[in-house]
């Protein structure tokens, strides 16, 4: 596959294509509209089965995190992973891997300059890998219920029956097995159980949210659960120690119990916020679109300001 950067990507445009020739990515850019000038840009990385739209607006019609961050003086870049949303889907989509996504994001970062990575869910392993590979392009990382580097996950058997037996095992990430000969589609029951289950999720807007869920690469899902030991690993967590890292997790996320995300934070030398510890309860996996998303955005923005970023 051709990992050559796309020519002519313009990070100053309101929207543009970036990424590699093999795996282009569409990027929305929101220009800073308020706050102090000169703050670092933020690249918001969505998770599996989603697109950058989850940062642009909430299903119940409120402003998304991208607008809130721009209002505080930050340029915000919101890419769609290759094959997601407005990014072209190639014939190799079922075997698209996290490394392919990461390499396309590196091309974007080369255009934006050093930035804060805000990564959700399956975007977590991608962000950890990018930060180790190109530390010059990453100023800090905010993990929002992020997947861990595969270093922390046990190697799961490459066996559908064995994985099915682990479906409700939170310590293994409630894994699912995905045959890599086709894209994977998520039904309403899956979305309701894992992404829209929390008290803070805007239940009246579930159908609006569900329509924005997109097919996912089977390989990405298998890598996320480290099936067959294929997950995206880093070489050494000390390589990330130069970066300020924050991990934020809610208390109603079936795949992210406190012990799991706290272990990720400890391994990476990150600061960890379990939201109930600061009086914020009822959040699940989709923190950026739940009914208190503004308060969680404020928490992250305050942390960035405190770090001088």
Detailed description of the structure:
- By secondary structure, the protein is α/β, with parallel strands linked by helices.
- The chain has helices at residues 53-56, 65-70, 98-112, 123-133, 160-164, 188-194, 206-210, 218-224, 258-268, 293-306, and strands spanning 15-19, 24-30, 42-45, 76-79, 115-120, 138-144, 245-249, 271-274.
- An 8-stranded mixed sheet has the order 1-2-4-3-5-6-7-8.
- The mean pLDDT is 94.
- The protein has one domain (15-306): Rossmann fold (3-Layer(aba) Sandwich).
The poorly predicted ranges are none
The run of helices and strands is: EEEHHEHEHEHHHHEHEH
Strand content: 5-15%
Mean pLDDT comes to 94
Number of helical regions? 10
Properties at a glance:
single chain; 309 residues; alpha/beta; Rossmann fold
Helix/strand layout:
Blueprint: E1 15-19, E2 24-30, E3 42-45, H1 53-56, H2 65-70, E4 76-79, H3 98-112, E5 115-120, H4 123-133, E6 138-144, H5 160-164, H6 188-194, H7 206-210, H8 218-224, E7 245-249, H9 258-268, E8 271-274, H10 293-306
Parallel strand pairs: 3-4, 3-5, 5-6, 6-7, 7-8
Antiparallel strand pairs: 1-2, 2-4
